[in-house]
């Protein structure tokens, strides 16, 4: 869903229930710029990896192909007391 929001395919408020803290504010800021928006082909996740720093937390990264650009995205997911996973941090690297 992060890729869909950052490419303009879904509105940023679609992440409201799936994010927490400053992550939602950062998504608003990023989505305004449409960093993964392309003409033609939709962005594609090329590679993904993750690290589990502690139980209930996942730090992940993805390489995303957006048109002729390749972008890096890092994000953190944390499991809440209600056992739902939420995005608590997100960063997007520049085009290559």
Structure description:
Pfam families: DUF6459 (PF20060). With 96 residues, the protein is of the alpha+beta class. Helices cover 18% and strands 42% of the residues. The chain has helices at 2-6, 22-33; strands at residues 44-54, 57-66, 69-79, 85-92. Strands 1-2-3-4 form a four-stranded antiparallel sheet. It is globular. The model has no long low-confidence stretch (mean pLDDT 91).
Question: Which descriptors apply to this entry?
Answer:
single chain, about 100 residues, alpha+beta, Nuclear Transport Factor 2, Chain: A, four-stranded antiparallel β-sheet, 4 strands
What is the CATH topology? Nuclear Transport Factor 2, Chain: A
Instruction: Report strand order across the widest sheet.
Output: 1-2-3-4
Radius of gyration: 13 Å
- For the termini, the CA-CA separation is 22 Å
What about the largest sheet?
4 strands, antiparallel
- What's the β-strand tally? 4
- Give the overall silhouette: globular
Q: Kindly name the structural category.
A: alpha+beta
InterPro entries: DUF6459 (IPR045596)
Give a brief rundown of this model.
By secondary structure, the protein is of the alpha+beta class. It has 2 helices and 4 strands, in the order H-H-E-E-E-E.
